Each structure stands twice: as C-alpha cells, then as structure tokens.
Amino acid sequence: MQLSLPMLAAMPTESVVGLVLLLVAAGLLGGFLSGVLGIGGGGILVPVLYEVFGALGVPEDIRMHVTLGTTLGVIAPTVLTSFSAFRARGSVDMDIVWRMGPWVFFGVLLGVVIADHADSVALRWIWVVFGSALAIKMVLGRDDWRIADTLPPRPWLETGGFFIGAASTLMGIGGATFTVPLLTLYGRPLLRAVATATGIGPIIALPGLVGYMIAGWGEPGLPPYSLGYVNAGALLVAPLGVLAAPLGVRVAHGIPKRTLELAFAAFLICVVSRFLWTLLA
C-alpha cells in the first residue's frame, strides 16, 4: 500500500495536524539533544518516524528500512551543525576523529549491507538490544568510570570505530551514543568526548544516507517522494534540528547533563517497550 496525496487528504484534519506537530517536536528535540548529549537525534526520530510511516500506510516489510534511512537523512545536517559549533569552540579532538573516521566509514558500509538483507523484524530486534543497552548505560553509567587514562593502542580504537559505524547505521543514529562512553572510559573529559563524537556523526550519517538510498532504489511499495529508503517529505524536519542544535551546544557548556541523561533513558525504555510489543504481540 503506497502513501499518496489522496490518502493524506482523506485523513481527518486533526490527524494530519497531529502528525505535523509530532514531526516538528521530534525535529526540535532531536536537534537540541544532538547539541547537549552529542547524539544525532536519531534515538528520538526513529520511533517517531516509525509510527508516522505506519499511520501513512507504508508496508510493514520496508517500514523500518524507510525509517532508518530517512532518520539518517534528517540528522545529517544536525550532526554537521553540532560538529561545526563544537569545533568553533575548540572542543573537538580531531586526532581521534581522523584515527577512528576511516574505520567508522567501513562499519557504515557493513551496516548498510546488513540492513539491505535484513527484514523489518531483525532491524527492530537490533533496536531493542542496543536501545536497552544504551538505556541501562545512561541509568547506571558514571562519567568517572575508567578503563585507562589513555586511548587504547591500534587496532582497538579502530575496531571500536568499525562496530560503532555498523551498529549506528542499523539503528539510524549518529554514533555518539556509543562514542561518548568509549572515550570517557579511556580518560577523555565528558564535554571533550561529546564534542569529539560530533565529528564522528557526519561520517555515519552522510554515507549511511547514500547507502540507504542505493539499497532501496526501485524497492516496491515505497512511499512517493522517496529516494530509495529515504523519504524526502519527512526530511522537511531537518532544518528544525539545525536550528535547535546550537542551543543544545550552549546548554552543554553550562549545566550538568545527568537529568537529561535519565530522561533520555526513560524515553529509550518506552521505545524499546513499543518495539517489543510490535514483535511479540
């Protein structure tokens, strides 16, 4: 069943307004959290877009694929904006970005290949597993936890970057939710880790976006205005994230983030529960 303009016209006005408001709120919140926590906002957008595409009749067998590809398209300008803002403040450790970047890119390529061959059920299980791990880390984790005071030697940091690229692509996120804990465990101050993670985000979002376009090209059942698994209509929320990201960066430099981490963990638990319900119901 394809999304069409007649379908939208047939929807009750309040339903259309509700969907638009939901997308607006998700775009703003995703951009804000991108600046505060260094994440790309995908953790917010994936569940929202999954429900929106479901309400608009996107077939279940490609609904998660379209959600992930479109989310990477939405967060791409947001992570670039956050990276630019943090780099302007001199907070980004570019040596780490250059060291991890190529391996993150190779991980993204693997993630796209896996997503192209995986069904919607498998992709939702991936979100349940990693989303649960992230929620637990945010609830229990402490910024002063350390494995060492220096970064691991080659090839361990590079290996971590490879898996960060693959997992983030399969979740539709910018990678900072994995990168920030990795860097803080090896002695990097939290703010420095958040800032540096924004340099990893574009390496995930941009090639991931192109990869999902190619993987879904010509797939039957795609909604109109789609380039492969990326729906151009939903990309309209991207500017909202760009507007909100600098505000998040300013907040990140001024207040503790523990309350926001706990709130985001609660949100992740709700998302994981929702996906589990769709899988087990």
Short structural summary:
The protein is mainly alpha-helical and 281 residues long.
What do you see in this structure?
The protein has 281 residues and is mainly alpha-helical. It has one domain. The chain has eleven helices and two strands. The protein has a two-stranded antiparallel ribbon. A hairpin with a 2-residue loop joins strand 1 and strand 2. Helix 3 packs antiparallel against helix 4, helix 5 crosses helix 7 and helix 8 packs antiparallel against helix 9. The longest helix has 29 residues. The N terminus is likely disordered.
List the helices and strands and how they pair.
Elements: H1 5-10, H2 13-37, H3 42-55, H4 60-88, H5 94-117, H6 120-140, H7 156-171, H8 176-185, H9 190-215, E1 226-227, E2 230-231, H10 238-252, H11 258-280
Antiparallel strand pairs: 1-2
Helix pairs in contact: 2-3, 2-4, 2-10, 3-4, 4-6, 4-9, 4-10, 5-7, 5-9, 6-11, 8-9
